[in-house]
Amino acid sequence: MTPDENQPNAGETSQDSPAVNTTTRRNIFATIKHFLTVVAPVFTRSRIVVVSIFTFMVAFAIQAPQIVEFWDKIFHPESNTEVNFANSEDTSIDLDVHNVGRKTSYFQDDCRIDFGDLPVEKATLEIHPDDKARTTITPGPQHVPIRVVTRGLSPKVRGIGLAERFTKKEIKKRLSAGTTTSNATLWVCVNESYGLRWRKLLIRVDKIKSFILEGLPDDV
User: Fold this and answer.
1) pTM
2) In terms of domains, do 189 and 168 share one?
3) Are 198 and 160 in the same domain?
4) Under a CB-based contact definition with an 8 Å cutoff, are residues 174 and 118 in contact?
5) Which tens digits make up the pLDDT trace of 137-173?
6) Is 12 inside a domain boundary?
7) Strand, coil or helix: what is 119?
8) Lowest mean pLDDT among 49-58, 102-111, 203-212
9) 113: CATH
10) Distance (Å, whole) CA 153 – CA 215
11) How far apart are CA 119 and CA 205, in angstroms?
């Protein structure tokens, strides 16, 4: 039987005709053209987007402090005064005052202290005469030291309806023995840019021991 002339003979390798080769090349060229006109621009745009996002993030990180400060000025435009206990001396309680807000505040000459379970009456404290010129608290990093003093402290009476009071010696003994563990509560008044506000400070009584004993009258 004579082999079909259109089929390759046994043991022979088939070869594409010139027409087939031309079609293949056209398909390849079409694929390349599609990549260049459709895929490549998308890839390029993606790279541009990624680079743009990265650039924005870097710029934002650099400008973040200024951005935060800008929004803080908008949403927190008032004064904001922090008052903390710094130290205690024989005649004064030393405070650290700091205005972290945006407007000026004024420390008021009106402070009150409660000694907790220590048998000493509540008292009103005043700003030390040498510190009254510092009561205008401007915004900024500076910390203003202000001392408050007392004109004298008084022991509590021993009970309701009794006239006899605790003695300074008894109060000193409590402080020295460490049997009084409560905090004294100091209230200070600050005139913020939006009105008067009280600031509450808790101070361990043993931290102001010398101040308390110096303020109490001597036993008769």
Assistant:
1) 0.64
2) yes
3) yes
4) yes
5) 999 999 999 999 999 999 999 887 777 899 999 999 9
6) no
7) coil
8) 49-58
9) 2.60.40
10) 5
11) 12
